[in-house]
Amino acid sequence: MSKTVLFWFRNDLRINDNPGINFSSKKGLVFPIYIHDEKSKIGSASKLWLHNSLLSLDKSLNNNLNFFIGNSLDIILSLCEKYNIQNVVWNKSFEPKSIEIDSKIESALGKKNVAVDKFNASLLWEPESILKGDGTPYKVFTPFYRKGCLLFSSEPRKPVKITKHLDIFTPDQRNSINTLGLSDGKKWNGELIKHWDIGEVNATNKLEKFIKNGLSGYKKKRDFPAGQNNSMLSPHIHFGEISVNQIWHEIKKYPEDKDSDHFLSEVGWREFSYYLLYHFRNLPEDNFQKKFDKFPWKYDEKLYDLWKKGLTGFPIIDAGMRQLWETGYIHNRVRMIVASFLVKNLQIHWHYGRDWFWECLVDADLASNSASWQWVAGSGADAAPYFRIFNPVLQSKKFDPNGEYIRKYVPELSKTEAKFIHSPWEKENNEYIEPIIDLKSSREKALLFYNQISKS
After folding, report:
1. Same domain, 75 and 219
2. Residue 15, class by beta-carbon neighbours within 10 Å (0-12 exposed, 13-18 middle, 19+ buried)?
3. How many separate domains does the chain show?
4. Is residue 45 part of a domain?
5. What pLDDT, on the 0 to 100 scale, is given for residue 183?
6. Would you say 307 and 314 are in contact if contact means Cβ atoms under 8 Å apart?
7. pLDDT tens profile 347-400
8. Which pLDDT tens digit goes with each residue over 294-310?
9. Same domain, residue pair 274 and 299
10. 185 φ/ψ sector (left φ>0, alpha ψ -120 to 50, else beta)
11. pLDDT of residue 189
C-alpha cells in the first residue's frame, strides 16, 4: 500500500517549480488540500482572484484539489488521523501570523509522530540567510540586494520540475470550492476579473509575452502608464501561480543589460519587502521610523472618500484610482503619485491608503503593501525622503504627456486638448471637477509638520 502524503497548498498555486509538490510526488500518493481561514482579512478583489486561481489549479489536478474552511491546525490534525497520514508537506509563508501558525502545526504533528517537510517556494533567498557582518538585518535595499546576489553567486535556486508522475490520493468525499465563499458578495460582480487571465499557464504565458514585447526598454519606459513595458505579473507572483525563481532564470537567459538588470532589481524590491517583514514583524502597523509617531496626521472623511473614488480634480490621481477600482490594479508609477497625494497633500495617515489598496488590489500583498506605503510616507526603511512630494501635474506631464492613460480611465476628459489634460482647471469653461486641495499650500504645510517632528 502506497504511503499518502498530505500536501497543503497556500500561496503557491502551481505545479511547476513547486518544491513541496516535487518532494511529495517522490514519497507516494499526494493528498492535495487548500484551507481557507475564514478569519483571514483578505480583500474583496483578492478573494475573486483566489477563487479563480483555485479553479485553475483544481483543473490542473484533474479536479482532485480538496477544499476546507476553518482552522488549519484542526483540519490538518483531523485529516492525518482520519486517513492515517504520516507525512505533511507545505511551502513556507514568511508572513508573521503564518510563521506562528506553522510553528504550532509542526509542534502538534511532532507530538503525533507525523513528519513535516517545509520548503521555500516564494522567495529567492531565505530571509535569515542575509545579514550584515554584525549579524543584524539590513535596512537599506542596495546592500541587501548585493549581498543576496553574491550569497549564491547570483544564482538563486533553479526551478524544479516534477520528477515523478503525480499520483493523487482520492478521499471518500470532497468539498466544493464554493464551500470557501470566496466569490460571495463581490463588489465588482465579476467585472474586475474580465481584465485578467488567471492561473499558472496564463502566468507563464504573460512572462513570455513580457520578455518578447516589454523587456526591451523596460528601465526607461516602465514609468509610462499608457505603455506596454510592465510585466503585470505581480498578482500571479503573489498567489504563487509563477515563482520568482522561474522569472529570475528566464530573464537570465537573455544578455545582461540595463533593462534586464533593472527588472530583476524590481523583483529584488519585493524580496526586500518580505525581508523587512520577516525581521520587523510590526511593519504593517508601526512606523519603522518612530519619529513619525508624532506626525500630526489628520483624517478628513470627505477628502478620503473623494480620493478613493477618483474625484480629486487631478486627472492623473483620478485615473489611477479609477483604474484600481475597475481592474484591481494600478500602475506602479501612479501608485506612488496617488499615495504621495494622500499622505502628504491630504496629510491622511498611510494606514488608510494601505487599507484601501488591500481591499481593491488583486496583487494585495502584506509585505509589499506595508513596505511600499511606508516608503512613500517617508516612515519606512530606506524610504523616500519625506520632502519628496510628487506633484501630480508635473508627474502627469512627464509620464503621460499626451494624456492617453488619463483619457482611458477618465472619459470626461477624453476630448480635452493635450495642453489642458493635466490641469483642466486652467481651461476656460472647465467642466471637470475642481481640485479638492491647493498643491502648493498643502505641500508647504506637510513640510512644516515634517520639520517639527524632525526637530523634536
Report:
1. no
2. middle
3. 3
4. yes
5. 82
6. no
7. 999 999 999 999 999 999 999 999 999 999 999 998 778 888 999 999 999 999
8. 999 999 999 999 999 99
9. no
10. left
11. 56
Amino acid at 328: G
| All three cell numbers of 112 | 503525533
Q: Which residue has the cell 535556486?
A: 157
Task: Count Cβ atoms within 10 A of the Cβ of residue 54 and give its class: 0-12 exposed, 13-18 middle, 19 or more buried.
Answer: buried
Residue 11 near residue 93 (C-beta atoms within 8 A):
yes
Enter the C-alpha cell of residue 194: 474580465
Here the cell at position 256 is 545582461
Task: Provide the pairing of β-strand 4-9 with 87-91.
Answer: parallel
CA angle 387/371/245 to nearest 5° reads 130
Residues 314 and 446 in one domain: yes
Residues 306 and 220 in one domain: no
Q: Which residues contact 427 (CB under 8 A, 6 or more apart)?
A: 416, 417, 420
With 70 as the cut, is the pLDDT of residue 87 above it?
yes
The amino acid at 214 = G
Is 261 within a domain?
yes
* Nearest C-alpha neighbor of 239 from the set 190, 196, 285: 196
**Are residues 24 and 5 in contact, defined by beta-carbon separation less than 8 angstroms?**
yes
Q: Are 207 and 250 in contact (CB under 8 A)?
A: yes
Element (H, E) at 266: helix 258-279
Residue among 173, 197, 181, 204 nearest 64 (CA): 173
- Say what the pTM is: 0.95
Is 307 within the bounds of a domain? yes
Mean pLDDT over the full length of the chain:
93
**77 and 153 within one domain:** no
Q: How far apart are CA 424 and CA 315, in angstroms?
A: 8
CATH number at residue 65: 3.40.50.620
Per-residue pLDDT band at 151 (split at 50, 70, 90): low
